[in-house]
Here is the input.
Amino acid sequence: MAEIKTKPTKASVTAFINAIADTKKRKEAKLILALMKEATGEKPVMWGDAIIGFGRYHYESERSSQKGDWPLTAYSPRKANHTIYLMNGVAFYAQGLKKMGPYTSGKSCLYLKGIEKLDLAALKKVVATSFTEVKLKYHGVE
Here is the structure.
């Protein structure tokens, strides 16, 4: 079984965001970071060198023998897109995402080219709902 390479680090989230060269992307990253902190109530933590995670859960894959820890939700200001990770899948939030505005997606990732055309309140609600649902699944009622 291969060990997961993406793990929490002690690296500074602020330094990571401030190192974004593109001024517009950096400003948007700061807004998304604040939105996700508010939506989750969690302190952001760097996972690997490019993912900012919020919360943590332990999983064991049903398809493979892989297991480990992973953030309950996460964000990465990638070069091409801002990427938001909804760990229980994007499909569950189709209605809320319609209200949010333009995006593309993968199975568990939202790809945002920019945020100027987005309804940030709708994005915050989707992130908060996903975070809560994944937390309940793995941690139960707290």
